[in-house]
Q: What sequence folds into this?
């Protein structure tokens, strides 16, 4: 694990950092076929870091041809599981070794604090690849309980080519959650990073080659969603597409599947988490601290952000006062300062979108604190922690729509039942939070909440061993844990009659 307290002058290191913006297809860095590029702009100060290849349909097709060749000749899927395991473990070691470089690229590209990139993103990415590498030779097939004159086996096989499309809020981690099980299962992959955050994906591809992945197994096609992303979704020779991002875009990938070859689709989409603190919770300091970090961590750019804080009316004032005091200590600063806890939002367009929601909130509810764009670094994308009170869950847009920024909506409930009803009254169902000292309430409420992940007396807990995904319009399928293999494998039943 990279030590976030390592004495490094990140400003000097950033000034000396080189960038690679070419696509990565069939083991080589290449320009887009038509030569198009787009600017890679750092949200820290609006500075153009480099030019990124803007891939389109022709580039995706070249990546598919390279990937299909590996599927057909078995240069990866045909290896012994122990050999794929060895290669992915080497890959994980290289990610850890290059951790400071990868963390810096992540921070410069999407604005998160360098301390978080070092302490969270790099170690989580490394752990993910190691865990799935270790799982490769521990997945067994099955023998069905058939009649004695038959033997029926059930085996897992890779689906073939996986198109992987990931978001910009946790570029490496989200990529790892999909790449690691897909590669472990023996698939070839085509990764399209978000156009706002392509740098670490491209660096991971070169490290994968250094680790020994065969040419064509790991391809990266940076580009715009409407071009490279759509081309992946519609390609007739991609066997599955696996996406994390907005619900709106997730629906497009379902449509693309139906319009093309009915490819597998796995989606982890939007969220509007209801974070409930009940009257039966006595640890209000802990709950308030978790509520603050649950919305302000990573600048609020999290699909599980606890953006709807549902407080029992008898403890509301006490909790809200604590959260306001916490928000006052969270000051947006330069992300390369190792003391920074809140960095920049990903780009100016998203910053403007969040500010539009804040303007909507000012008309719908009561602004308690924040609400302004700030400028700790000229040209950057920074918004201060913002809290609205007296929010109506049923009618206010700031309660219904995913903002994806440091904006908290406070909603009052008169009972446990009402709090659960409010939390469930959402088109999303990715996560829910719940605080109580009564274990019976916790268990009953956890069963009643319609979400894929429930945080009880904690928030945003994470481990690669547990599945992650949502109900309703928050997605289809699960990332993480052994359950992720269900997305990247086909089940084959083989019958043998015994004479």
A:
């Amino acid at each position: 694990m990279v030590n976030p307290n390592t004495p490094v002058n990140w400003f000097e290191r950033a000034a000396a950092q080189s960038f690679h913006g070419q696509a990565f297809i069939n083991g080589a860095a290449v320009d887009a076929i038509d030569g198009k590029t787009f600017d890679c702009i750092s949200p820290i100060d609006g500075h153009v870091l480099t030019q990124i290849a803007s891939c389109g349909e022709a580039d995706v097709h070249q990546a598919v041809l390279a990937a299909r060749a590996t599927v057909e000749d078995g240069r990866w899927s045909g290896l012994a599981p122990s050999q794929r395991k060895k290669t992915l473990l080497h890959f994980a070691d290289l990610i850890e070794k290059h951790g400071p470089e990868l963390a810096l690229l992540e921070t410069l590209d999407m604005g998160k604090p360098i301390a978080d990139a070092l302490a969270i993103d790099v170690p989580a990415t490394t752990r993910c690849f190691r865990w799935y590498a270790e799982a490769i030779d521990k997945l067994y097939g099955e023998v069905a309980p058939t009649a004695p004159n038959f033997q029926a086996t059930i085996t897992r096989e890779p689906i073939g080519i996986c198109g992987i499309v990931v978001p910009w809020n946790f570029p490496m981690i989200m990529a790892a959650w999909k790449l690691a099980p897909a590669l472990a299962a023996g698939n070839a992959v085509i990764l399209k990073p978000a156009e706002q955050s392509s740098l670490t994906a491209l660096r991971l591809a070169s490290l994968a080659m250094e680790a020994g992945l065969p040419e064509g197994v790991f391809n990266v096609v940076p580009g715009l969603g409407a071009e490279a992303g759509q081309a992946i979704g519609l390609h007739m020779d991609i066997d599955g597409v696996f996406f994390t991002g907005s619900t709106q875009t997730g629906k497009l990938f379902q449509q693309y599947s139906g319009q093309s070859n009915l490819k597998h689709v796995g989606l982890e989409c939007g969220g509007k988490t209801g974070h409930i603190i009940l009257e039966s919770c006595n640890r209000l300091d802990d709950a308030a601290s978790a509520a603050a970090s649950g919305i302000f961590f990573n600048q609020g750019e999290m699909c599980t952000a606890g953006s709807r804080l549902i407080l029992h009316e008898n403890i509301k004032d006490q909790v809200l006062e604590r959260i306001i005091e916490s928000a006052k200590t969270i000051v947006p600063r330069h992300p390369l300062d190792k003391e920074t806890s809140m960095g920049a939002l990903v780009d100016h367009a998203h910053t403007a979108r969040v500010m539009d929601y804040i303007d909507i909130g000012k008309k719908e509810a009561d602004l308690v604190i924040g609400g302004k764009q700030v400028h700790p670094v000229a040209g950057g994308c920074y918004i201060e922690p913002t809290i609205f009170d007296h929010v109506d869950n049923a009618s206010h847009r700031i309660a219904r729509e995913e903002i994806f920024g440091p904006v908290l909506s406070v909603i009052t409930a008169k009972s446990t039942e009402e709090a659960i009803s409010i939390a469930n009254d959402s088109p999303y169902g990715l996560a829910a939070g719940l605080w109580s000292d009564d274990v019976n309430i916790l268990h009953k409420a956890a069963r009643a909440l319609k979400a894929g992940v429930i945080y009880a007396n904690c928030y945003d807990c994470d481990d690669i061993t547990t599945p992650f995904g949502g109900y309703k319009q928050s997605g289809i399928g699960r990332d993480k844990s052994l359950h992720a293999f269900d997305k990247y494998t086909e089940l084959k039943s083989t019958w043998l009659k015994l004479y």
Notes: The longest strand covers residues 150-158. The first helix runs from residue 10 to 16. The domain at 10-269+474-493 is CATH 3.40.605.10 (Aldehyde Dehydrogenase; Chain A, domain 1).
